[in-house]
Backbone:
């Protein structure tokens, strides 16, 4: 095997994907124009175009566009600037079409029964199969945007180390990243409504999503036999041609992609601008390095945590995000947290203080300290909208969020 074909080692590369909503400039209603954006650059209807270090691609529905690193990058430092540059380029293409990009993980008033339009071009047979089996005209399919982090591994040992670490950290990721407190004009009472609808979108075949937290697995064979095989068997009667029987069918919050030797983390809501997304990504990777190095506890102890117990913590963070109460002493001991009880933001403060310093400290520590001090984006949105959630407040809040994305600035409320 030559060097080019050799899998990357742990943390030797990073892949980032961020999804955005296309809306009209006047009312911020969803606008199904992703194919027109890609066509404007490529001159034809394509699924993806490469713009230097960032690629643009389609998703399931026509009002969502994804920006992603063009292959793995050695460092996340400075990457926010590349994503910000591309959001501005897309906005320039959308402007004559009366369109613009909106951040956050859910459109706050989209009615998916009326406004869903699936991608009609290449790869459509996959989307059509999903729609036939699960009915994609629902929030859990057509109204959710996220950031994905892809991290590499080489061989079973590195897979076990990375998968064990990701599995442990996954439950508290919504505490940092929740940005979806609204659905169809209403405050839902959840900080991460996207993850609530996401975890139920494949309920017809429960093995596809499981408990969102993946089951423990130490080898590729463990994973294929314990997670992938049951899922393929369960969907086979509904998918006789095998269109969906691939690793990406797995809808857990982190999935192994053995086809490219990576683990993809999927539970992070899209933030108000790339600088905040990348700050979260860098912070998450810093803590994962600590877990992989067994600085807190050995891998065997990490794997002892029951999937159901981790799912309970995850569900608490979906509901309350940074204010979620964690009383699982075994979980807190995993991170050497000194108290018997913690709110999620307190645990994150402890973890970030434990993370080793590096040259990019200011790029990610300052934004994360802002989140821990002022609340996750969902909490800041809820505060701005107000308890009565008047439509005028909702619209003004999301207009400001669109401006934050255009300017690359933090959301600090509305005046």
Residues:
């Amino acid at each position: 095997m030559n060097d080019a074909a050799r899998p990357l080692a742990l943390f030797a590369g990073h892949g980032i994907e961020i999804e955005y909503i296309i809306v009209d400039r006047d009312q911020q209603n969803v606008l199904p124009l992703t194919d027109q954006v890609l066509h404007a650059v490529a001159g034809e209807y394509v699924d993806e175009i490469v713009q230097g270090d960032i690629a643009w691609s389609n998703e399931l529905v026509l009002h969502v566009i994804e920006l992603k690193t063009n292959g793995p990058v050695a460092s996340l430092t400075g990457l926010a600037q590349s994503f910000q540059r591309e959001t501005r380029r897309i906005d320039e293409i959308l402007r004559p079409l009366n369109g613009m990009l909106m951040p956050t993980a859910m459109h706050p008033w989209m009615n998916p029964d009326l406004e869903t339009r699936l991608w009609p071009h290449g790869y459509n047979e996959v989307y059509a199969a999903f729609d036939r089996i699960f009915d994609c005209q629902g929030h859990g399919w057509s109204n959710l945007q996220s950031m994905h982090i892809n991290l590499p591994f080489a061989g079973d040992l590195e897979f076990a180390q990375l998968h064990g670490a990701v599995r442990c950290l996954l439950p508290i990721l919504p505490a940092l990243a929740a940005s979806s407190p609204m659905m169809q004009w209403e405050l839902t009472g959840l900080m991460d409504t996207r993850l609530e609808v996401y975890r139920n979108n494949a309920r017809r075949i429960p093995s596809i999503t499981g408990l969102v937290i993946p089951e423990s697995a130490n080898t590729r064979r463990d994973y294929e036999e314990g997670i992938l095989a049951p899922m393929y068997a369960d969907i086979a009667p509904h998918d006789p041609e095998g269109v969906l029987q691939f690793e990406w069918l797995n809808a857990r919050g982190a999935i192994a992609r053995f086809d490219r030797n990576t683990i993809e983390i999927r539970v992070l809501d899209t933030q108000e601008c790339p600088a905040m997304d990348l700050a979260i990504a860098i912070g998450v990777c810093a803590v994962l390095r600590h877990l992989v190095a067994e600085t807190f506890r050995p891998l065997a102890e990490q794997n002892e945590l029951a999937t159901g117990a981790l799912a309970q913590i995850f569900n608490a963070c979906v509901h309350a995000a940074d204010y979620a109460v964690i009383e699982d002493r075994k979980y807190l001991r995993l991170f050497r947290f000194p108290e018997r009880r913690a709110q999620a933001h307190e645990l994150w403060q402890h973890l970030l203080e434990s993370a080793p310093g590096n040259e990019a400290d200011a790029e990610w520590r300052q934004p994360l300290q802002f989140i821990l001090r002022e609340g996750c984006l969902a909490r800041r949105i809820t505060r701005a909208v107000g308890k009565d959630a008047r439509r005028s407040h909702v619209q003004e809040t999301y207009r400001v969020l669109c401006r934050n994305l255009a300017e690359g600035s933090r959301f600090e409320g509305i005046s």
Notes: Residues 118 and 124 are 8 Å apart (CA to CA). The chain has one domain: 3-407.
